[in-house]
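[worker-b] picked up task from shared queue
[worker-b] task type: protein-ligand structure
[worker-b] ligand name resolved to pyridoxal-5'-phosphate; SMILES cross-checked against name lookup, match
[worker-b] sequence length check passed
[worker-b] input payload:
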Amino acid sequence: MTFEYQRVPEFAGGRRLHLNENTRGCSPAVLAAIRGLDATRLAFYPAYASAIRRCADHLGVDRDAIVLTNGLDEGIMAACLVAARDRRIEPESIVIEPAFDMYAACTDAAGGTVVTVAPEADFVFPTAAVLAAITPVTRLVFLTNPNNPTGRIIESETIAHIAHAAPQATIFLDEAYGDFARTSFLPVRHAHPNVLIGRTFAKAHGLAALRVGVVIGAPDRLEALRRAITPYSLNVCAAVALEAALDDPGHVAAYVAEVEQSRRLLYAACDRWRVDYWESAANFVLIRLGDRTAEVVSALARRGIFVRDRSNEPGCAGCVRITAGVVDDTRACIQAMEETLCDAR
Ligand SMILES: *Cc1c(COP(=O)(O)O)cnc(C)c1O
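[worker-b] inference finished, payload out:
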């Protein structure tokens, strides 16, 4: 079986509620920082010391405990390359479904074997099944907290339990949406040296197009990852943008608050329509519209509102994932959904 990332159409304009981006955009300080670059800064290979220091301080970790990456996707790929290097075995990556496509796609591209764990009812985290899937050749376990596409949280004790049960593996804890969740494994990571934590500045910080991520972990475990990443993988715009974004925490805080308001609006609408949804700790909500999903997704697209049909993901039959960002977009989406849902009744 092969796995690949399901590319979405490149919509121009409209309300983009399908990729969990920051729909408000990045901080104005980021634009100023990029405009401030001169011809030689673009001509010279980028220096990273300042961005690394700034990012490590932001996370409250030592500088040698982080690796900056060209988007978190690169961190995931690097972890897969490292995991697949042991040629004496057929290294396995455990992926708990429904999951972000890149875990399986990168494992596959690196030559590893994907072992999937099926979801439980209501997306309760399948701890027993994950523990049962661990074998002597497990080299990676991907955990996503909060999960994409469900927005559900994994308890820290569960993460610790899995890390303890798989000392032969790296636990890649993807906290891409950690800024929205106000919870992180960072404070307890020292007790679990086989856990690498992935963060991205694509979502809450609004730098998706610039491509900036970071992997945090024990320095010796990060050494192998560093060797799997090319020396100038972040371009200079991304490096200066990261610093500028971190210097404007108010921008992120305001957006996180707006996301919470949008989530509540979506929950209230679902309650009115009597459709199922899952309370989310991230900047999106997974909603089960059942057999009306495809119809609603295309009706919204005709009005320039793009949402993501997740029906083909395990456990997500009839589900749509809607980004909760700018409140005006959320209201427009709810209005359009209401008209579509009521129309056909
Ligand atoms: C968006 C996303 C990423 C990728 O982040 P980039 O920095 O844009 O590469 C990683 N993991 C999850 C769960 C995501 O949703």
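[worker-b] attaching auto-annotations
[worker-b] The pocket of pyridoxal-5'-phosphate is lined by residues 20, 71-73, 100, 144, 148, 174, 176, 200, 202, 208, 213 (CB under 6 Å).
[worker-b] releasing lock
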